[in-house]
Amino acid sequence: MSISHTGMVYFGTEAKPYKETEVVKDTIVESVVKQFKERSEVGIAKYGTTMDRKDLSTLEWLQHLQEELFDASLYIEKLKSKLHIVDIMKSDEELGLYANTFSGTTSSTTAGILYNEELEKRMNIIGQNGNDGTHY
Q1: What secondary structure letter does DSSP report for 9?
Q2: How many Cα atoms sit within 13 Å of 114 on the Cβ side?
Q3: What band does 31 get if pLDDT is binned at 50, 70 and 90?
Q4: DSSP states of 13-59 as a string?
Q5: Which of 15, 35, 55, 113 could be cross-linked to 8 through a Cys-Cys bond (beta carbons 3.0 to 4.6 Å apart)?
């Protein structure tokens, strides 16, 4: 949002007249701020201190940050693996690879997800190589 010298408020390319009493709220920002406050309350209750604490060195703060980022990386990797399996299943389904039999291997459907030995082998290879598996 920006206010021009003509008194118009611009939201992207849309212009509206500015009213001093008009309150523009960003629900996404409000949601994040609310979550920060709730997280702060949990942290204070759990650790008995705030981020204003003075007992940690810069290196110790960096260590805490690094550990949090390690955790974040694990969450990202978990979600990527879930998306990756869905993407592979979609592309394989489009190619007609989900038939009742797979070159003599057994297959079963559980909760709408096709499982078989061939798919298991494929996912193991993809996971070991750390690639997206598009050429398998």
Answers
A1: E
A2: 18
A3: very high
A4: TEEEE--TT-----HHHHHHHHHHHHHHHHHHHHHS--TT--SS-HH
A5: 15
